[in-house]
Amino acid sequence: MNAMGNDSLAHTPSAGNDDLSAGDLAQLLSGGLRDELGLTSDVLNVGLAIAANHLARGANSEAMRIYVGLVMCEPMNVDFQVGLANCANVMGEQSVALQAASVVIMLAPTDPRGYLLSGRSCIMMGNLDEAREDLHDALKYAGGNEPVVKEIELLLGSIPAQTAG
């Protein structure tokens, strides 16, 4: 039990019942681990900047550890999921990248980043038709964001035409 008298995150499911209860899941998704650790969203945002710096300088494993921790603390934070997807993509962990990108799409369906990250992962996995679809969705939501539009167009241009369905 923690100092606040709450032991729900430390609860181990009984044998034969590995499912989280609805209440435990709701607490986890709303930042329960963050709260249990006594962290704030502001502190976690500093972690986001540190992870991005690690990734930028090529310290990918360190960045991944931070992104995973951030997502565990605030699973519904779109920026943390974007960071995790991007880092996983850089590290060649396409299934992790695709899962995080899917969460971004679910949480922010008009944010082009989720579709862009999903499309990039699909290309790396050889799922070119799915990549094309995701990248067209990204383009639809990118608006006038020229750097994003340019990356989407480059990725679309890298997909061989014969995959068009």
Helix and strand sequence? HHHHHHHHH
Q: Given this structure, which CATH class is correct?
A: Mainly Alpha
- Low-pLDDT ranges: 1-16
Q: How many domain regions? A: 1
As a percent range, the share of strand residues is under 5%
Would you mind describing this structure in some detail?
By secondary structure, the protein is mostly helical. It has one domain: Serine Threonine Protein Phosphatase 5, Tetratricopeptide repeat, CATH 1.25.40.10. Helix content is 68%, strand content 0%.
List strands and helices in order, with pairings.
Elements: H1 22-29, H2 32-36, H3 41-56, H4 60-73, H5 78-90, H6 94-107, H7 112-125, H8 128-142, H9 146-158
Give the gist of this structure:
This protein has 165 residues and is mostly helical. 68% of the residues lie in helices and 0% in strands.
